[in-house]
Amino acid sequence: MDEIHKKILQRNRSNLVKDLDPSKLYDGLLEKGIFTQDMIDEIQSAGTRRNQARQLVQDLETRGSRAFPLFLQCLQETGQESLAELLQNGAPATPTQVVRPEIQPLPITPPVDGNKPGKDVKKPQIPSSSPPGGEKPRPGPGRVRRDSLQGYKMDASPCGHCLIINNMEFEPHSMLKNRKGSNIDCEKLERRFKTLNFVVEVRTNLRQKQIKHELLTLSKKDHSQYDCCVVIMLSHGTEVNHNRFPGAVYGVDGQYVPVQHITNYLNGQHCPSLQGKPKLFFIQACGGDEKDMGFEVSPDEVEPSSGGVDDQTDAIPMSSSSDSLSMSDEPDARPTLPTPSDILVSYSTFPGYVSWRETQSGSWYVQTLDCILEESAATVDLVTMLMMVNNEVSQNSAKGLYKQMPGSFNFLRKLLYFQTQT
User: Fold this and answer.
1) Edge-to-edge, what's the strand order for the sheet holding 237-238?
2) Which pLDDT score is estimated for 108?
3) Which stretches of the chain drop beneath a pLDDT of 70?
4) Kind of pairing, strands 279-284 and 343-347?
5) What is the pLDDT of residue 354?
6) Which one of 17, 63, 103, 354 is at 20 to 30 Å from 336 when CA atoms are compared?
């Protein structure tokens, strides 16, 4: 950054620290290449808004010559025009075009015979240019990365918030059956994530608007001191149109919330303090009304396991049946996915199929997930553990006939290892 721009920032530092809202700037600063994600993560780790603003201004001075005008642009785009004008009044007019290096013709030199000794030929100097956002980021002395390329930082205590929404008893007009056994799932997951050092909150039998309110409340929390956030949905589900994540989850009033909307509450725009941190969603709900009868394999490929006589599903009632199976969730087929980072959505079943639940011991998916976390969380990363869950659940059979296949949409950038008690 030019010295004159550094002096302008220094002269106005107190006003910037007092009035700047860094949370509105992070997406733009990242998009324009002024900061890297790791630098934004470190700024967010400063804690309060004032501390984040102070750290942002300090780091801004280390960026390239384009950082100052791009920062002014970010201020204007996020409704902080007064601060932009304050800085602009002390800044000389600067061109907004990208400054390109002047290309000099190379000097013509006679060919050199490599077999004959001679004087060294000096190579011409070619001007170098910096990327639009500034110099290539270099870790300065004392700068500590929040996480490594191998794994997310997961050592905060507590590690983060965990919200469990457990819908068991549905209103009569919803035409959805009560979910017997879901309380068992809820108790297991509450106990498990407390063991993993999360602050767990449980909400029971929520209508659609109440689900949205709880998610909004979670998104408004300050997650700066935490490393992760978890949302668990236990309910009926259905198929909806989508462009990100398939499926939707029902409130007890029969109105649903799409899974892609559930994830949006915690994205970078709506929850800046979770930017760059893993956001995990576990969905125990049907993906459709199809029952998977599986296919034949050789006996040594599977260890047969059968469900109990009280197996039920979490899918919408589509037709009456005499086998006492309740159907409640439908799938989202052929999803079109963007590239949201640091999000993982784990589904209890493959899109299009029912999800099985035993009234006395809970759902196959949650039972297996809880068991795998207990046995392997100390040494195995999350994605690998979810593959282990997939394998275990796939070997179960309901009524000795029907199968289930969990799955996930994984946009995590690094490995994730939970905290465990030693």
Assistant:
1) 237-238, 248-250, 256-258
2) 55
3) 91-149, 242-243, 287-340, 350-361, 396-403, 422
4) parallel
5) 59
6) 354
**What's the pLDDT tens digit per position in 177-216?**
898 888 999 999 999 999 999 999 999 999 999 999 999 9
**How far is residue 142's CA from residue 155's CA, in Å, rounded to a whole number?**
20
End-to-end CA distance of the chain: 48
* Exposed/middle/buried for residue 51 (C-beta within 10 Å: 0-12, 13-18, 19+): middle
The secondary structure of the chain in percent helix, strand, coil, rounded to multiples of 5, reads 30, 15, 55
Tokens of 178: 């009560």
At 226 the three-state DSSP class reads coil
Q: How far is CA 137 from CA 29, 32, 36, 53, 63, in A?
A: 14, 14, 8, 20, 8
Structure tokens that stand for 282 in this block: 């576990």
Q: Are 227 and 212 in contact (CB under 8 A)?
A: no
What's the rounded Cα separation, in Å, for the pair 231 and 266?
A: 10
Q: What is the pTM of this model?
A: 0.56
Q: What is the pLDDT of residue 33?
A: 85
Residues catalogued as catalytic: 236, 286
Q: What single-letter amino acid sits at 312?
A: Q
Yes or no: say if 164 and 190 are a contact pair by the CB < 8 Å rule: yes
* pLDDT score, position 38: 77
As given in the structure block, the two tokens for residue 5 are: 């721009």
pLDDT at 14: 86
- pLDDT of 332: 35
Computed over its alpha carbons, how large is the radius of gyration of the chain? 27
CB atoms within 10 A of CB 330: 28
DSSP state of 315: B
Segments of 81-169 assigned E as strands? 160-166
Tokens of 105: 């013709």
| Residues 388, 389, 392, 395, CA torsion sign | negative
Structure tokens at 162: 């965990």
Structural tokens at position 231: 């949302």
**pLDDT number for residue 120:** 46
Please write down the HEC assignment for all residues of 63-107: CCCCHHHHHHHHHHHCCCHHHHHHHHCCCCCCCCCCCCCCCCCCC
Retrieve residue 37's tokens. 């994600």
Q: For CA atoms 189, 259, 244, 160, give the dihedral sign.
A: negative
Give Cβ neighbours of residue 109 (< 8 Å, ≥ 6 apart).
Answer: 121
Task: Return the pLDDT at 145.
Answer: 39
Digit-coded pLDDT (tens) for 25-78: 998 888 888 888 878 887 887 788 888 888 888 888 888 888 888 989 899 899
